[in-house]
Amino acid sequence: MSIFTREQARELTQRVLAMSRAESCRVSVNGGLEANTRFAANDISTSGDATNAGVNVRSGFGRRTASSSTNILTEEGLRRAVEMSERLARLAPEDREALPELGPQTYREVPAFFDSTANLDPTRRADAASAVMGPARQGGLQASGFISLRAGSTAVANSLGLFAYHRGTNFAFTTTVRTEDGTGSGWAGTAGNDWRRVNPSELAATAVRKARESANSVAIEPGRYTVVLEPTAVANLLGLLVGAMNARAADEGRSFFSKRGGGNKIGERVVDERVTILSDPWDPDLLAQPFGGDGQPNQRTVWIEGGVVRTLNYDRYWAQRQNVAPTGAAGLKMMGGEASLDDLVRSTERGVLVTRFWYIRGLDPRSILYTGLTRDGTFLIENGRITRAVRNMRFNESPVTMLNNLELLGRPIRVSGSESGDIGQAVAVPPLKTRDFNFQSISDAV
Amino acid sequence: MLALDAARSAGASYADVRISRTRTQSVATREDRVTNLSDSDTLGFGVRVLVNGAWGFAASRDLVRDEVQRVARVAVQQARANRRASQRPVVLAPTEPVRDGRWSSPARVDPFTVPIEDKVALLLAANQAALRVRGARFVTSALFFLKDERTFANSEGSFTVQNLYRVLPQMNVTAVAADNSDFQSRASDEIQPMGRGYEHVTDSDLGGKAQMWAEQAVEKLSARSVEPGRYDLVLNPTHLFLTIHESVAHPTELDRAMGYEANYAGTSFVAPPARVINQLRFGSELMTIRADRRQEGGLATTGWDDEGVPADDWLLIDRGVFKDYQTTREQAAWISELTGVSRSHGCSYAQTWADVQFQRMPNVSLLPGTQDLVDQDLIAATERGIYIVGRGAYSIDQQRYNFQFGGQAFYEIRNGRLNGMLKDVTYQARTPDFWASLDMLGGDRSYQLCGSFNDGKGQPSQSNAVSHGCPAARFRNVAVINTGRQT
User: Fold this and answer.
1) What percentage of chain A carries pLDDT values higher than 70?
2) Which of A115, A301, B57, B155 is the most buried (most CB within 10 A)?
């Protein structure tokens, strides 16, 4: 399966390091299985198993560095990658921002590997797909979906003796069920490390219900609405906020987190005081890699606490220049409250429930303003109840505004937060209710 | 052949194998620094099989006898597992086997033979040219090269070997207001990615154009924020190509129309086929859209697709009326009675050996008008409008109706003349309404082949590179909103 054990990874990285003639060398290896099954129009459409492994070599001569990668792991292939990176590095101009490799580090292991996921073979995936397609067929609906898994290992070693190793499994399972006449569409999805936590029938039931209930939607006037965002919709927008927290961009004046007149917004309250956002690879809801690409250990990193910016994302160079510790972060979690999704709906006099967002694109980095659309389950809430399906709408809104106008938070759960349904960053977020969410126009799309 | 034999003897009625070696190189800079120099080389193979009408696919990097046979057997096992859960068997459209096909992108200079120092020097010199402009604070630039050696064989006797090249030169200049109250960027959209060799980098002249981009980034800081309302839009090809990509090329993919991408990329308003082929009025009479995998220098230009089907060109839309979709061998029969076309249009593509091939976009282009008009002529004929250059934020719904598109540089048009720069401009429209409002087209002289280097579709998401040619064009009475005043 090409999942390197710790010993195999150590042996391979040492073998590559021994080939190096550079002043410094860093070797990263990864290997494993990526497998998936897709279904559409109530049939399995494609599936695939791919085993791969790769080595990346980064060579340095003083402040000159370059990297080369290959998946040809023969003696000759590895040597070629080493020589290529050395050749490029010698030709590279000196980089005044280049830093020496890190020395040995200590890492706390993350128990992220689950046999239940690694052994999810084509037959089991077909069974999970059938658990969705069956109810859809019976109900005269059209199911499509995607089951994706990754089981692999990553290691980093360098010429100063650093060695880091992690192995893990991940999966994502998403489904969209549509009515035969194309007037209704419902989505459900989940992601995680341990397949045993998945209940395909539950996903099917949610998607089928939403497909039915979203049929024959009505248009409501675009404008500012109170919205109840399901966790997936929250995840779609939250990553954009944290993605904008680059310290250097802030200090250089080209970020929402830049302070007028110079500096950045660390210590300033930027969102509602109930908002706390952090990264923590050991959180059972996240289980992410405990080190970065250069072997930098990941830490529990609190980005925003009580609405106040606690830190920004510092790479090693900028951290050194600003005299702070570099950031090492993986996974993303927003803390929540105790409310259930139903509680959020019940407390809403008039609002819109959003299942997920789509085609989210940046409009203005000064305000982290984004546009995108609702899809696959958008409903009107009236007097604490979902009363009817509404047409999808385009929003122009910033996650900063969304979190400033916060009304109520639910319990965080792990979600499939990427629009594509691919295995992305581990994200756990609560459903939330926020007011004055800006819907700009109606979409005819179902 | 080993893989094909193993698949056949394990029970496959059809099998194909792709072996590909992909070399990429990236050179990235920031101001006077090189931020990334990297090179990658990957090799592997993928085997796709049909067993009782169900697909199976497996891939591996290890090109040795035992592994090739193992992978072929895994693909067959996949197909058997999938067969159990499937109802409709796959039927492939016929295609003439290609016995020994050879094709290469029209690259005069292999980018991997050009010394890295030359690439670095070119970028750093261009950065310097940008930074000489007062107010231009930050600049990034990059060159990306890809060479893909693809060998394809199938159990019907096809065998092709192709060398595909792609080249992407890029720059982005940012100006920041003295008090940090504003920052604005301008990207190098006059330069487009192409399926060519290093000569495209040389011809692009990043260094010569850097000053213009830097000046425009600075000018944007003091540009007027647009007054929302309805305007006539004159769209330069460096902008319009992406509007075509999103609003015309995606909805005419047959897999989307049939619900095969419902879970991610979405479905299409151009559906169902029986109700739209030769019937749907997509846009004005001026709108003729051609799909073309033969267009020279196009990113999706090829000799044969990833099913061994020869490159094709055909009309998707003829004088505003929808005619045909983009198809693969599996899809051709779904609509052959409606179109009269029983063969595949050759739109099968996989991003790497490790991914299964499926329907991807060919080059899709808007044909130029018959009159010899250029951008200036369209501007001169417009009373109140906005002239848009370059691509900005693009967002469109999952059936390709409601879109909102931005650009790089915006100019107010007043009484046939440009009247200074605008900012915070984005326009929103419904696809058929927008294309119905097309009322002026540039001619051959205003035509440019532009491209999208990383178009995502499929699950797992695969990237496709595709070109779109178009002339400048005018669209009437389009809703423009201001993105600078929303928060």
Assistant:
1) 100
2) B57
Does the beta-carbon distance from B397 to A145 stay under 8 Å?
no
CA–CA distance, B292 with B160 (Å, rounded to integer)? 20
Residue B486 has pLDDT above 90, yes or no: no
Q: Are A409 and A340 in contact (CB under 8 A)?
A: no
**How many contacts (CB atoms, under 8 Å) link A and B?**
289
Check if the beta carbon of residue B311 is closer than 8 Å to that of residue B293: yes
Chain B residue numbers touching A138 (CB-CB < 8 A): none
Disruptive mutation site among A38, A58, A65, A181 for chain B (greatest number of B CBs within 10 Å): A38
Return the pLDDT at A119. Answer: 96
State the DSSP string of A324-341. SPPP----EEE---SB-H
Residue B329: half-sphere exposure toward Cβ, Cα within 13 Å: 22
Which pLDDT does position A184 carry in this prediction? 98
Q: Give the confidence band of B485 by pLDDT, cuts at 50, 70, 90.
A: low
| Candidate from A258, A362, A372 with C-beta closest to B180 | A258
**Residues composing chain A:** 446
C-beta atoms surrounding B332 within 10 Å: 25
Q: Which of B85, B180, B483 sits opposite A130 (nearest CB)?
A: B85
pTM score of the predicted model: 0.95
Q: Across the interface, do B85 and A129 touch by the CB < 8 Å criterion? A: yes
Q: Which pair of structure tokens corresponds to residue A246? A: 């680059």
Is residue A64 within 8 Å of residue A95, measured between CB atoms? yes
Chain B nearest-CA distance from A252, in A, is 8
Q: What is d(CA B7, CA B71) in angstroms, rounded to the nearest whole number?
A: 9
CA pair distance B364, B314, nearest whole angstrom: 10
ipTM (interface pTM): 0.93
Cβ contact B39:A67 at 8 Å: yes
Find all residues with CB under 8 Å of A77, minimum gap 6, and list them.
A70, B41
Q: Do B487 and A369 touch (CB under 8 A)?
A: yes
Put simply, whether A407 touches B (Cβ < 8 Å) is no
Which A residues, 148 through 167, put their C-beta within 8 Å of a C-beta on chain B? 148
Q: Which of A1, A30, A47 would you mutate first to test chain B, the one with the most B CBs within 10 A?
A: A47
Taking the CA atoms of residue A255, residue A259, residue A264 and residue A266 in that order, the dihedral angle to the nearest 10 degrees is -110
CA distance A356 to A372: 10
Average pLDDT of every residue of chain B: 96
Alpha helices, DSSP H, located in B181-328: 199-204, 206-221, 237-244, 254-257, 273-276
In this predicted structure, the answer to whether residue A322 has a pLDDT above a threshold of 50 is yes
Q: Which two tokens stand for residue A412?
A: 């965080």
**In chain A, what residues touch B398 (CB-CB under 8 Å)?**
358-359, 373, 375, 445
Please tell me the distance from the alpha carbon of residue B213 to that of residue B238, in angstroms, as a whole number.
14
Residue type, B390: G
Is A75 an interface residue toward B (CB < 8 Å)? no
Cα distances (Å, whole numbers) of residue B296 to B192, B302, B363, B468: 14, 9, 10, 12
Q: List, in order of start, the domains of chain B with CATH numbers.
A: 2-222 (3.30.2290.10), 225-482 (no CATH)
Q: Which residue from B60, B183, B483 is facing A51, i.e. has the nearest CB?
A: B60
- pLDDT, chain A, mean: 96
Chain B residue numbers touching A88 (CB-CB < 8 A): 37-39, 116
- In A295-431, DSSP assigns E strands to 301-305, 308-309, 332-334, 350-364, 369-382, 385-389, 393-397, 406-409, 413-415, 427-429
Q: What confidence score (pLDDT) does residue A1 get? A: 54
CB contact under 8 A, B41 and A72: yes
Provide the 3-class DSSP secondary structure of residue A97: coil
pLDDT at A218 over 50: yes
pLDDT at residue number B179 = 83
Please judge whether B395 and A144 are an interchain contact, meaning their C-beta atoms are less than 8 angstroms apart.
no
